[in-house]
Every structure is written in C-alpha cells, then in structure tokens.
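Example complex used in Figure S2.
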Amino acid sequence: MEKRVTFKGWWLPLLLILPQLLITAVFFFWPAGQAIYQSAFIPDPFGLKTQFVGWGNFEFLLEDPYYLASFKTTAIFSLLVTIVSMTAALWLALMADRIIKGSGTYRTLLIWPYAVAPAVAGVLWMFMFRPNVGLVSWYLDRVGYDWNHVLNDGQAMALVVFASSWGRVSYNFLFFLAGLQAVPKSVIEAAAIDGAHFWHRFRTIVFPLLSPTTFFLLVVNIVYAFFETFGVIHTITAGGPQQATTIMVYKVYADGFVGQDLGSSAAQSVILLLIVGILTIIQFKFTERRVHY
Amino acid sequence: MSGMVEKKGRATWLVHLGLIIGIAIVCFPIYLAFVASTVTTNDLVRPPMPLIPGDQFFANYSSALLSGINAPVWKMLLNSTIMALGIAIGKIVISLLSAFAIVYFRFPLRNVFFWLIFLTLMLPVEVRIVPTYEVVANFGMLNSYSGLILPLIASATATFLFRQFYMTVPDELAEAARVDGATPMRFFLDILLPMSRTNIAALFVILFIYGWNQYLWPLLMTTDPEMNTIVMGIKQMFPSADDLTQWPVIMATALLAMLPPVLVVIFMQNLFIKGLVDTEK
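Predicted assembly (574 residues):
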C-alpha cells in the first residue's frame, strides 16, 4: 500500500522520523542486543570479569529443572487464565446480547475492571483470601475448607489465576458482545422458527460465526497471561510457595534482579523474545484475515 | 423485530437476574476494598470483617494522601499522572510525526526504518528488563521522570495506527495543498492533524491507562519512595517484618490508584472502545 501523492525533500522526513528512531535504537535495539550478547557469557564469582560460554547458558537452562518447571507453570497459568476469563466473558456477553433495553448500563458496569491495574487487582484478591482472617478464607474455613495459599501450591495458583482473569473478563466481554451483535438476527430467527432451542442455535450457528473473535481472543489472552500478569504474581505470591507460581517473566526478574544471575536472565529474555515473536506472527497472520472478515 | 426470539417475560427476567449476579461478583472485590478503607485496622484482624462501611473514611484517606506509609500518596498520584501523561503524549507525538514521514515522503532507507520500527511491536518491556535497566542506569536516569517515560515510548502500535489512518485520507487533499504551494508541515498541521482528532483521543485513552498501570518498570526504576508511582507503591506499603499491616490505608491507596483510569473508561467509554479495537488490529 503506497500513497500516490507525496511531498518532495528528504531531510524533513528524516527529521520527522528521527525521534522515534532514536528512542527505538537506545531503549530497544541496544538493550535487545545486550540481552543477546550477555546470554553468551557468565560473570565470574567476583563479578569482575565475564567468561564466554557460547550456548552454555541456554544448554544449562534447558536442563535446569527449575526453568523447565517455570515453563510448565507458565503454560498451565496462561491456559487457565484464558479459559476462565473467556468462559465468564462469553457467558455474560450471551446474556447481555439478549437484552434489548438497558444493555448499555450493563456494559458500563462490566467493562470498568479493565482499567484496574493487575498489581492492584492482586492486592484486592490477596485481601479477600488472607489465610485465617480474609473474608473468603474465613467463610471457607467455616464450611470446613482450609485455605492457605501461602503454603498450598494449588491454592496459590488458583488465586493468581482468578486475580489475573478478573479484569480480563471486561476485555473479552467487549469483544464477544461485539461479535455476537454482528451475527445476523434473521439467521437466528429463522432457526428459532424451525424450532431450534437456544443451546442448539448456539452450537450450530452462533459459535461458528464467533470463531474469528474466539481465536483472536485466545492469542491475545495468552500474550496477556505471559507478559502482563507480573504485577499479580509479585503482589500475591512473589512466585511462591517455593516456585509454584513462578511464571517465565517472573523468573527473568527473580534471576536477573534478585539473584543477579545476568547471563541466565539474559538467556531467558532471548527465549521469551522468541516466544513473543511467534505469538505476534500468529496474531498478525490472523488479524490480517480479520480485517477482511 | 429483534425481540422475536424468546421474548417471553420470564426468560428476559432470568437474563437480567443472571447479569446482575455476574456484575455483583465482578464488583464485589472493589466493594470489599471500599469497606476496608473506611474501618480501623483492628476491625480487619478480627474475622469476619464488617460488610458495611465504617466511619473512618476521612481519617484513612487523609492519612493515606497526606502521609502514606513510605511516601505521601498525593506524591505518588502526581508521579503516576506525570508518567501516564508523558507516555501517552510522547507516544502519540513521535508516532504522528514518523507515520507522516513514512506515508507522505519517499526518502532513502525509508523501508529499512519502517521495518526497524515494526520490530518493536514484538518486545514488551517485561522481556528486556535487565538490559534496559542497565541502559537507563548508564544515562543516570534512575529515579527520574525521563527514565520512567522514555523506555516505554518505544512502541510501534501508535505508528501503525496513524499510518493506517493516513492511508485512508483522500489523495486529493495532499494534491490540493501541494498545488496551493503549502509546505508539508502546513498540510500536516492544518489538514492531517484536525482529521486525526478522534484517533488521537481514542489512542490517548488507551495509552493513559497503559501508562498509569505500569508496574514492573517503575518497580525497578524508582528506589526513592518519593519517586514511586501509586500502582507500584501499594506493594511497598506492606511491612517487611511482623508489624501489623495497615490495611485501611493500603485499601484507600488501592482505590485511589484505580480511580483515574476507571473514570477515564466510564466517561470516555466510546473512545475507549474505539481505541481498544483499533490498537488490537
């Protein structure tokens, strides 16, 4: 796609593009280059010199049970966040789509949690689930269920999944609702006249028509769970108990800043970089289709 | 017409009930936080906690705003405002300019530059934190606003958005401007910029929320409590030892932290939705 009509001159456009190029070079390409460079070195124990190890950091990582565990944790975590937030959102959107009057009010009341930062959401959920004294954990205790996410791996995972999914429901709801409203009403009505029940109509007509939206949301939510949930993990569990909620992005931070293992952290950054790249390409391939849809 | 499918009264009533229950579940954590911000610390350590707001609203909020725990919350609100505005305005300005250059000019290395910017789409700051931190530290920009803002401005999303929009602007407008002897910058300021108003506003809403809600970057960048942003400052308010957590003050801070972006979403809903759809394309 190119413009037919353009202006003459070459120094003005260079001047116009310069600010973005400078910032991109200094805060993007230089650090990214550093990450790739550092991933090939390990610092000596005194931090005075570094030693070239080539693929050493990567080889070590891929055999490191802790790193492999964080890989698995990330997969489980992002899958759960995606499923929980998309199911809840689809359910709400299906209901909101059937409302003729007042759907605007419902929409307003459902979308604002999007604006709540993951870190703030983390604090709110941790407050409700404080072992022994939190409102929810106290009532769970009353009915005989012992809640302590500080010690229990599964409960810690459940809590970070719910806290991460909460604000995400708003986002998914908006896209599902838009998708549902784009389904031609005449098709639904024809099916209804033929005697198709709601669930039957949903399975055979609505859901297939919604599949572009669903696929798009799948990718976007996985990206979200991978990269934007750091605040939730850091506020609620700090990766624990032990490593039970240490997702990959959290491990880059924990190893690089807390553990000062720069080579390993840089190698982890490079691996994440590859994952983002793949996800972005999938997203692009798909959104290309979405434009024509 | 649209009411033809299942317009039975009882079914509609059930749908409303379902939605209200859904909203109640979604809003409950916030309500509880509000209650917690209006009671005393002692009310929260003896379970079960009250479910009705108490009378400590002014005491807790003024304590948070004026003294806070590590730094007064008004200062953190100010830091967050500067960071969010800086990121939103900075991204929009550099993107408006670079998209203009890419779409309306032919110059050496144009395609190379375009792809270099395109690549930044692929790397969120979370992935390159350690080296970016080192770069910023080398510049002596730790604990500064420029250190908080500049690394987060490097993104291609806005550039793409404006590029896409410029492509839809009729060629006749540029043609006419050129015939009239208008300079490119005149065309940009008098024609292109006013036409981009809605796009700029929608993008501003999304970027403001994005900037306000940053967590990891300010966490690394600001070791001085006076430079903390409010979203990252909340976690710093928890005591490291066995001291009593001041939940009412923390919850008051949490509510203050979410207020600006939530108001933006509610009152600029249409721009927000447009921005959301645009930036994901």
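Chain B has a mean pLDDT of 87. Chain B touches chain A through 104 residues (CB under 8 Å).
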